[in-house]
Amino acid sequence: MLPGVALNDGLYMIVVPITLREANDFVQNFHRHNGRTSRDGGKFAIGCSTGHELVGVAIVGNPLSATFMDGFTAEVLRTCTNDRAPKGAVSFLYSRCWRIWAAMGGRRLITYTLETESGASLRGAGWKIVAECPAGQIGKNWNKGAKAREWQPIYGQQKLRWEMNV
After folding, report:
1. DSSP code at position 141
2. Rounded CA separation 137/139 (Å)
3. Domain spanning 5-165 has what CATH number?
4. Second label for 161, Cα 20 to 30 Å away, from 58, 72, 87, 110?
5. Quick one: which H or E segment has residue 25?
């Protein structure tokens, strides 16, 4: 039997390997406010399957902030599930991302949520809030000079930074 999480209906939620491009295609089709990662970028991507279909993905890459680029820190850039994903699928993805990153020698994994999001999936996976990040302004915080992110629906919203570490 494949290692995974048992569901009530006798199915299992399992991790499946996928390419970054496949993960980004899934994000493009199902994410409510984010698109693909830049140039389909990332270190690795994983999928969540119920055995019958892909129901969720996670993409882990270099931290977007240069402050955290120490070689031992990565960032969960995207998590995304479709409407057929079982309850707990996002927590499952976050916990598996941490296990994989730690197995690769990583010491810290970070991610961000909008202040308006509950963070229940992260709390369920054992993550902790470590910082409040103020809403971005052009040229500050979430932008670098000419790379204004006004086109994003999440532009200007406060975010929370979450972390798992050894």
Report:
1. T
2. 6
3. 3.40.630.30
4. 87
5. helix 20-30
How much of the chain exceeds pLDDT 90, in percent? Answer: 63
> What are the tens digits of pLDDT across the range 79-106?
999 999 999 999 999 999 999 999 999 9
22 has pLDDT over 70: yes
| 88 dihedral zone (left: phi>0; alpha: psi -120 to 50; beta) | left
Phi/psi at 133 (5° precision): -110, 120
CB 17 within 8 A of CB 57: no
Q: Which residues pair with 61 in a beta bridge?
A: 75
| Per-residue pLDDT tens digits for 28-79 | 989 867 777 777 678 999 999 998 799 999 999 999 889 999 999 999 999 9
- Residue burial 33-43, b: 16+ Cβ < 10 Å; e: rest: eeebbeeeebb
Structure tokens at 73: 């820190």
CB atoms within 10 A of CB 12: 14
> Helices then strands (H, E): number in the chain?
3, 8
Distance of CA 80 to the CA centre of its chain: 8
- By CB atoms closer than 10 A (0-12, 13-18, 19+), residue 25 is middle
């055995």: which residue's tokens?
A: 51
